[in-house]
């Protein structure tokens, strides 16, 4: 099966499916459909111009197990859209994020289909994860996609590392409205930038401004940073409007409540909008299926499993409210979004075998 996985990965990497290149993403999904075993069910959906694909052993949206992936990638140098090997490293855009996992999952489903397995197991391939994952949310909210177990292969970076918890996410845009005036006569206007600064200070008081100069020893902390800030028209004009977009990553409900309370009490003239809000993804490590998955990882690799946390977020967050058992795990790889993104050939093979054994057990 590994040779088929490698061939699938090679072809996927050659397709420059950068998120906003709709034709390239379609081409990647077309290829995956064509590579499916004849008995597999396929369903394509378009949401806000972005496509996604569900491949399953049964024609149902009420799944026992869903493998969650995405085919879109971030931009790269042209040479990154050709898979090359350097020792154990398979190098190419999307190798670890996350075309390697797609190649493994598709060929595992093909293997199960060839064995005549007909259970409620599916593979979802989103086309917009790198810009928010709205297609995955559409599958859940509008189409009724459900899963008891979600295998999320979009975080971990090491085949012996399983993510048992990640942070809550709140992305909030705050907007200050002022009144334009000449910079020499500021008392004739209202400076939106000054208002925004006051609002930013109120939000910054919630959590420290971490950087490489004050790296926290314990990374499991709530964080906040301003990802975008805009304001002003000219240096000699009092700004009539200004905005900042905050990215909060929170470790608990108490911190979430503090953020929302601070947003609700911003200064007069400042409003806010929640662009994204997502629950934390917390795996139930006492669940027998979670323990079974960990056992398979230990058996295949011959090494202990590290239960760890992630500071980032994946599309798996959309499944948290339905109380699905979410198991975030992926092959070993590195340089996400970098010029030498890679995945371990051995770990990719091991991951596929773990996946196959786990799905056979579920089936």
Word description of this protein:
There is one protein chain. The protein has 8 helices and 18 strands. With 363 residues, it is an alpha+beta fold. The strands form 5 sheets. A 6-stranded mixed sheet has the order 1-2-6-3-7-16, with helices on both faces. Strands 4-5-18-17 form a 4-stranded antiparallel sheet. α1 crosses α3 (95-114). The longest helix is centred in the N-terminal third of the chain and has 20 residues, at 95-114.
Describe this protein with a few key phrases.
363 residues, alpha+beta, six-stranded mixed beta sheet, four-stranded antiparallel beta sheet
H and E string: HHEEEEEHEHEEEEHEEEHEHEEEEH
Give the distance, in angstroms, between the N- and C-terminal Cα atoms. Answer: 19 Å
Mean pLDDT: 94
Radius of gyration: 23 Å
Shape label: elongated
In terms of structural class, how would the helical and strand content be classed? alpha+beta
Helix content: 25-40%
Short description:
With 363 residues, the protein is α+β, with helices and mostly antiparallel strands. It contains 8 helices and 18 strands. A hairpin with a 2-residue loop joins β4 (84-86) and β5.
